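Cell division protein FtsL: structure tokens wanted.
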Amino acid sequence: MSHLATRSIPGGGLLLVIVFVAVLASAIAVTYSAHLSRQLVNDLYGELHERDKIQAEWGRLVLEQSTWMAHNRIEALASERLKMRIPEAADVRLVTP
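Answer:
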């Protein structure tokens, strides 16, 4: 009986080394995958922050455009309907109080 217990399985040591290498490779792959995932999430948050800044700027530009368009519209209505015009420099007189 003791003779059977000391007997090793042929290739058993090699199988153990193969399993150890596979487990080690799997652990390294999991670590790399977690690192890559965190890096991609950080990149995503950076891009989302950039998008928010650009959207805020876009909103300001749209507001500015609507302000300028309202000014142009009022100027066009004043010149067309009321026949108003910007006076020439010679027509302007300063009145002191």
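Residues 12-83 form one domain. The mean pLDDT is 88.

Cheers.
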